[in-house]
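cron nightly-structures :: item 1 of 1
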Amino acid sequence: MVALTSCTSGGSEVGDPPQSSAALSGRDDRATNLPFDTSFPNRWNSSNDGSAYEPCNALRVDLVELGIDADSARDAAGTDGQTARGCEWRYLDDSPVAHWTVSQVVGNSSGLAREKARVSGTADVWLPDLRIGGRAVGVHFVKGGGDCDTYVQSGKAAVSTIVVTLDTGVPVSEICDRAIAFTRATIDKIPH
């Protein structure tokens, strides 16, 4: 799982107006056509540039087939220069009680084995790896956490899909099934 905390600082001066993805595309053509405007000029940075994959543009048309509200896309980053680069969406069956979301983010990583060693606390559970599209996919959840994530290596980065619900009555298998389904739908778009 890729942490969604900022490890670097940077960006525009306080008071600078937010920049649209179109304005940013002059600096970085990988930021084009995002489904939202971003105020983060360092959204793409040295902590998440190990893969050319852009999660926000991978599935726009197919999101509804996965039960995801395509219009709910928002930047997964909370700060400029964040380690993780990607998108978060709400599920169509979302409710204030369940609050289902799926995120897919890119963050530099040296491989699944090292990630498993790094994320191996007493509450962490790594399920047996899956093979999807001929690639190893790690599946991870935290006991009692209401979330499940997958890990796919892409170049020098991880592409992590994270499904979260606030409904404590949902079995982890259902949460992981959603993370795996999103991974399966995007894996052929994720560079090796």
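cron nightly-structures :: done
Strands lie at 74-75, 85-90, 101-108, 124-132, 135-142, 147-154, 157-164.
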